[in-house]
Amino acid sequence: MSTFTWLTGHKPALTEAQLKRRQQLAEAAPLDSRTLQQRFVVLDLETSGLNMRRDVVLSIGAVVIENSAIDLSQQFECTLQREGHQASASTLIHGIAPSEIAMGEEPAEALLAFMEFVGDSPLLAFHAEFDQRMLARALKQSLGYRLQHAFFDVAEIAPLLCPKAGVGNAGLDGWTQHFGLQVQQRHHASADALVTAELALILFSKARQQALDSLPVLLQQLNSRRRKLAHSI
């Protein structure tokens, strides 16, 4: 790898090879009339905390849904190296020791690999706003890259399609219990991504039963629900 680096103002320093890889990253595909059969990347992030301006991404776990199935041949898992990272209250939740962080992948390399894995696919997450903002910030800081991929929130889709479930604000645990799903290890990025994908498959099946088999139509229904909720406050 070339040792030539690019550094201007506050932009991140990248090697020549990393710049080339960044340039070759796929652009986000337009949603158009894409169906729920297409490729989705389901991700989960573990972070140093919940402050979206101060905390950082520590690990990324992701799996792929395609053709109404989880493709276990397409999985991504990576721990990011963070200099000076120390144990905190969050360590008790995600269980990632500072020694693991110290041995992790250099952030630019990890994030490039992840976006290469994503390709032009839309992303799914539970409470997606947090993952989207944390990922976007990490990509901007480490790669000078602007995230433009569509994110869909499974936490929004679930009550839209299952309004009588009675889960309320119980979160991922509540929905997994409602559908009888087994979680191997909560607050582990790969395990949470996998159970989120399993939940998404159940919801996609319900969406098709309700004639919501295209992303634009599903998004339209989500936007309508958001407006109703906003007016009810």
TrEMBL record:
GO terms for molecular function: exonuclease activity. Residues 39-209 form the Exonuclease domain. Pfam families: RNase_T. Keywords: Exonuclease, Hydrolase, Nuclease. It comes from the Bacteria. This is 3'-5' exonuclease. It comes from Pseudomonas spirodelae.
